[in-house]
Amino acid sequence: MIALTERSGTGTVPRRRRPDWRRMPVAPLSLLAGAAVWEVVGLLAGVPFFPPLSTVLTRLSKMVSDGLILPSLGDSLVNLALGIAVSLGVGLVTGVAMGRYRRVEAALGVYVYALLTAPSLVFAPIFFSLLGAGRGSIVAVVVMYAMFVIIINTASAIQAVPAQLVEMARSYGASERQLLVSVMLPAAAPMIMAGVRLGVGRAVAGMINGEMFIAVVGLGHVVTEASGRFDGASVLAVLLIIIAVALSAVALVQLVDRKITGWVPSTSRGNP
């Protein structure tokens, strides 16, 4: 590579390179810009329910040192993990069955679409009365938020597998099990994982909503108590933790997605 130079009175000096903004990390810059806007708007607004970011971070540090965050975060992560595990187990199996067999889709489709469109939180009182004010009710709310998105995306992914692949596999004598495991699931994996990402995001919303409604454990319990005291800084501090949990969960799913669908070209997965 030839360095660009320019002449001066004393000789030749290197020309300064202009910064290539295309190589700048977009996500950190976006977060910094958002933090700056939050701080400025919070200072200018001067309202108790939207304090500056610096005030929220100070309150978060105090809540962590007082032992309010970490135990609640642990309870919330357990609720989230159990809910996602149930949603994945039931959602993927049901979605594959609905996508592959029309009788299954005809029998279950009306229930799946009805429960997807229904507000998931309205089932919280039912779970509360059946399972009590404990972890089971919160996990059930998480499942209601996440499972049906996974079912519908999985069924659509299976149905979208090109017919040529299926016919070719049958021409080579593939059994139904081999057809599903070796042909249809790999071909449908990118779209299935997109549904899993959506489901995980909804699971975080279900976790916090369920905990706020039942208000016995987790970060939702902390938010409910802070809201009752009209403590906007504490509410926003917990919100930062919830956002961090959501981003971490989605990042974990994306890591698994890259492991599973690494053979797919990046443009096919929708990545730049």
In total, how many beta strands?
A: 2
Q: Taking strands numbered 1, 2, ... along the chain, how are they ordered across the largest sheet?
A: 1-2
Low-confidence stretches: none
- Name of the CATH class: Mainly Alpha
Q: What is the rounded Rg?
A: 25 Å
Output the structural class: mainly alpha
Terminal CA distance reads: 27 Å
CATH architecture identity: Orthogonal Bundle
Instruction: Name the CATH superfamily classification.
Output: MetI-like
What features would you highlight for this structure?
mainly alpha; 10 helices; 2 strands; globular
Please give the structural blueprint:
Layout lengths: L4 E4 L2 E4 L11 H20 L7 H13 L4 H31 L1 H16 L6 H8 L3 H25 L3 H9 L4 H39 L3 H11 L3 H29 L12
Antiparallel strand pairs: 1-2
Helix pairs in contact: 2-10, 3-4, 3-6, 3-8, 3-9, 4-6, 5-6, 6-8, 8-9, 8-10, 9-10
Description of the molecule:
- With 272 residues, this protein is mainly alpha-helical.
- It has a single domain (53-259), classed as MetI-like (MetI-like fold), CATH 1.10.3720.
- The protein is built from ten helices and two strands, in the order ββαααααααααα.
- Strand 1 and strand 2 form a beta hairpin.
- Helix 3 (70-100) packs across helix 9, helix 8 (176-214) packs parallel to helix 9 (218-228) and helix 9 packs antiparallel against helix 10 (232-260).
- The longest helix is centred in the C-terminal third of the chain and has 39 residues, at 176-214.
- The radius of gyration is 25 Å and the shape is globular.
- The mean pLDDT is 83.
